[in-house]
TrEMBL record:
Alphabetical UniProt keywords: ATP-binding, Coiled coil, Kinase, Nucleotide-binding, Phosphoprotein, Transferase, Two-component regulatory system
Residue ranges of every copy of the PAC domain listed in the record: 139-191
Protein name from the UniProt record: histidine kinase
Molecular function via GO: ATP binding; phosphorelay sensor kinase activity
Originating species: Bradyrhizobium diazoefficiens SEMIA 5080
Domain Histidine kinase residue range list: 218-455
Catalytic activity of the protein: ATP + protein L-histidine = ADP + protein N-phospho-L-histidine
Entries under Gene3D superfamilies matching the protein: 1.10.287.130, Histidine kinase-like ATPase, C-terminal domain, PAS domain
Cross-referenced CDD domains: HisKA, PAS
Assigned EC number: 2.7.13.3
């Protein structure tokens, strides 16, 4: 049972009751009506507030639905697969690209641990992807996913962390795209590239052998001349020796003086004695020339590729140009402008090959030129030595100029050029710290130039 109280409200109600019993019903009704009106007014206010709130809420709800539809639409339109996981690795959402790629439904994966969705063999690769920490926060990896029949191709995966409003780690978003096809294509490309490099090396070797062949032909041509006159001289000397021996025998046989004089005349002993000096000198010169050529040949030995030595430019250019010109067997106006005492450090055999290539190209280009002229110069400019080889041929076709340094680019007929000369030369010059440049001269002809650090 509730107990009687003496609160202020209770005493107010008591006095109202007293007023009604003593003063009559009219006052009582008026006051009641006023109170009711007040209550109804308040109710109206509350009701209209409620209506307003409801409209607001509906509005907000529509906006929220629209935003959610937008986000869903974006996620679904992403062509990469997308997996959202919580901090423990439980799958919270996947997009349709994922379902499509794996042939699995949302219900099949959402709520399961990601470890059960991937290929069991890739478990170790998953660990770093679920804990992307540090900078940059995105972690890259590769995964295969489990399918009904086994597992998918390899996917490249990026894992980005998710944080709540207080910055706490709450999970990751994994995005991925298949790379199996790409990887196979890359491997095939890599293999083809290696194959090409091997073929190129082989061709370079062949080109080296070819230039060695040209060199040997040039050397043979060079040796032929001195050897033939050494040979001729020796023949004459043999004949002279026979005459002298006969004459000396006659002297020692104590023949008559008149007979000896006649014999001396018939054996032409005086001319023989006179001829001896030039004959021996000539033979000596021939022998020296042969030994010079052999010395040059040894200096240019191709087995020394890669060795670095001090190279005298004057000597290098003289031998290379001369040999190139001799092998081509053409008459040209050759102008050499070589400063003396220029030295660089490099590989003489390789640099020789560059000069020979450039001179041979120039001579080939001037094939139809009426008065072919080749200017080869080497001059010091600051700490560098500038090499220039200019011809007065037709110049390089403007459509070809950007291709001439490419391997196998040639405008020569099959069998006349491999198109490797400039490519090899470019590589050699670059290895020596320079750059081989080609340009056409304003008044016709082409110039090839490069600068190398002076030693
Ligand atoms: N001095 C030059 N004047 C005009 N064109 C040139 C000159 N030098 C080179 N070229 C052009 O550059 C091309 C490539 O030269 P490169 O030396 O690489 O090969 P190639 O001479 O054709 O063949 P290889 O050197 O193997 O015998 C030549 O075919 C030619 O068209
Ligand atoms: Mg060439």
């Amino acid at each position: 049972m509730p107990k009687a109280t003496h609160s202020p409200e209770a005493s107010e109600a008591d006095s109202l009751l007293k007023l009604v019993t003593s003063g009559g019903a009219i006052e009582f009704d008026r006051e009641r009506e006023g109170a009711w009106i007040e209550v109804i007014r308040k109710m109206d206010e509350v009701y209209s507030d409620l209506l307003r709130y409801e409209v607001d809420l509906e509005h907000k709800n529509a906006e929220l639905e629209e935003a959610q539809a937008f986000v869903t639409n974006v996620i679904e339109s992403v062509s990469d697969i997308l997996i959202v996981c919580d901090a423990r690795g439980m799958v919270q959402q996947v997009n349709s690209a994922f379902q499509h790629a794996l042939g699995r439904s949302v219900g099949d994966v959402v709520g399961r641990n990601i470890a059960d969705v991937i290929d069991a063999a890739d478990g170790a690769k998953l660990v770093p992807l679920l804990k992307p920490r540090g900078t940059p926060d995105v972690v890259d990896g590769e995964l295969r996913f489990a399918t009904d029949g086994g597992s998918t191709d390899l996917f490249a995966i990026n894992s980005s962390p998710r944080h709540d409003h207080r910055g706490r780690f709450i999970g990751v978003v994994l995005t991925g795209r298949p790379i199996g096809e790409l990887r196979r294509a890359y491997e095939a490309l890599h293999k083809a590239h290696q194959e090409l490099q091997r073929a190129q090396r082989q061709l370079v070797e062949q080109e080296k052998m070819a230039s060695l062949g040209r060199l040997v032909a040039g050397v043979a041509h060079e040796l032929n001349n001195p050897i033939s006159f050494v040979y001729g001289n020796i023949h004459t000397l043999i004949r002279y020796r026979a005459a002298i021996v006969a004459y000396l025998d006659a002297i020692h046989g104590k023949g008559r003086a008149s007979d000896l004089a006649a014999l001396k005349k018939s054996l032409r002993i005086d001319e023989v004695m006179e001829d001896f000096g030039p004959l021996i000198e000539g033979t000596m010169e021939g022998a020296v020339r042969i030994s010079e050529i052999v010395k040059n040949l040894r200096r240019l030995s191709f087995s020394k590729l890669g060795e670095v030595e001090r190279v005298n430019i004057e000597r290098l250019i003289n031998t290379a140009v001369l040999w190139a010109v001799r092998t081509k067997q053409v008459r040209i106006d050759l102008q050499m402008e070589l400063e003396p005492e220029l030295w660089i450090s490099g590989n003489e055999g390789q640099l020789h090959q560059v000069i020979v290539n450039l001179v041979e190209n120039a001579i080939d280009a001037m094939r139809d030129t009426e008065l072919p002229r080749l200017v080869v110069s080497a001059a010091r400019k600051g700490n560098e030595i500038l090499f220039r080889i200019s011809d007065n041929g037709p110049g390089i076709d403007k459509d070809h100029i950007s291709h001439i340094f490419e391997p196998f680019f040639t405008t020569k007929r099959v069998g006349e050029g491999t198109g490797l000369g400039l490519w090899i030369s470019y590589g050699i010059v670059r290895e020596h710290g320079g750059e081989l440049l080609a340009a056409n001269e304003p008044d016709g002809g082409a110039t090839f130039s490069f600068a190398l650090p002076a030693a």
